[in-house]
Design goal:
Structural class: alpha+beta
Shape: globular
Order of helices and strands: EHEEEEHEEEHHEHEEEEHEEE
Strand order of the largest sheet: 2-3-4-1-13-16-15-14
Strand content: 25-35%
Number of helices: 6
Helix content: 10-25%
Length: 331
């Protein structure tokens, strides 16, 4: 079972001040049907990392080979993809992680901009508890802690190469509390991990781990400063502000508590990233090509460089975190 050893900052996120309804015209906002998709990680040991995510999180291989997905998107962070293996992992056909073998890169500094964690969302407490138990049992997992965020229940781990992982499930939206401007009320309250597992672990769910649904629910980044992060992710890319707290900004669409978060807890003042292991790409999906075109217009109007090959749109944030926008695959 688990013992909390977390020294991570609190994620209290309470509505701050009297916020009016978002005054931006619709063309300046990201479609409310946008979502986050698989996160790409640059890894040093592709075999070991693939085994870890299969065994610890119950992900299965959806594709593998040379640049199995998003060919050519590693130039900004970690060099060319040519000759380097790639494995796409997920559940029930839905990608969660793309592991890209990029040997020779150093580990990122704790104070550098980049990934704070990839958050994997489960449908219910049974599926969450089964994955938490499996992750906790894995000898190469580092358990970081757990928290009741009011809107969700979350457990935190670190993978063998130092990448943060959140495993969580959402409470029903009708139970969420909203403040002025529809900001979502979140907190970081004590969540007893052992009691949670005792209450919700189902051995059938553990045995059938790979059959349960899972997806990337949100991605949490480390950045150098929040004003610049807000300018890029809200004013330029078009997300809505969902919540704020000292040292962190939470953004979303469609009234979600957050699709992306940015914090400066360890990385205040950080400049553009050097090439390291860790975060390779964050993918955002939209329903139509028209939504991509609108995003391209916003980005270019603000002087942000964009690569548009007709299928996907690629850009980078001010810290060289790579962002891909693409049309959502038909169900």
């Amino acid at each position: 079972m688990l013992e909390t050893t977390a020294d991570r900052p609190s994620e209290d996120a309470r509505p701050a001040g009297d916020v009016a309804a978002d005054p931006r015209p619709v063309e300046d906002r990201l479609t409310q049907a946008a979502d986050v998709d698989a996160v790409t990680l640059h890894v040093g040991d592709l075999g070991a990392m693939t085994d870890y995510y299969r065994d610890a999180l119950g992900l299965v291989t959806l594709a593998e080979g040379r640049a199995a997905r998003r060919e050519g998107h590693a130039e900004e962070q970690g060099g060319e993809t040519s000759g380097r293996g790639e494995v796409v992992l997920g559940r029930r056909g839905r990608p969660v992680l793309v592991l890209r073998h990029t040997p020779g890169l150093p580990q990122p500094s704790r104070r550098q901009a980049g990934l704070f964690h990839t958050a994997v969302l489960f449908d219910d407490q049974r599926d969450l508890a089964a994955t938490v138990l499996t992750a906790a049992r894995h000898p190469r997992s580092t358990y970081v802690g757990s928290a009741d965020h009011l809107v969700s229940e979350a457990f935190y781990f670190t993978d063998p190469e130092g990448n943060g992982i959140e495993l969580y499930r959402d409470r029903p939206r009708e139970t969420w509390t909203r403040g002025p401007g529809s900001r979502v009320l979140m907190d970081s309250l004590w969540l007893d991990p052992q009691e949670y597992l005792r209450a919700h672990v189902d051995e059938a769910a553990v045995t059938g781990l790979t059959d349960a649904a899972a997806k990337v629910g949100h991605v949490h980044l480390q950045v150098g400063d929040l004003a610049t992060a807000r300018d890029f992710y809200v004013e330029t890319l078009g997300f809505d502000v969902a919540a704020e707290m000292p040292g962190a900004l939470f953004v979303a669409v469609g009234g979600y508590h957050h699709h992306l978060a940015m914090n400066t807890w360890n990385s205040a003042g950080a400049g553009p990233r050097a090439s390291t292991l860790g975060l390779g790409d964050v993918t955002i999906t939209v329903p139509t090509r028209a939504d991509l075109d609108a995003a391209v217009t916003r980005l270019r109007r603000r002087g942000v460089q964009v690569a548009d090959d007709g299928a996907v749109v690629r850009t980078t944030d001010p810290w060289r975190n790579s962002v891909t926008l693409q049309e959502r695959a038909a169900a």
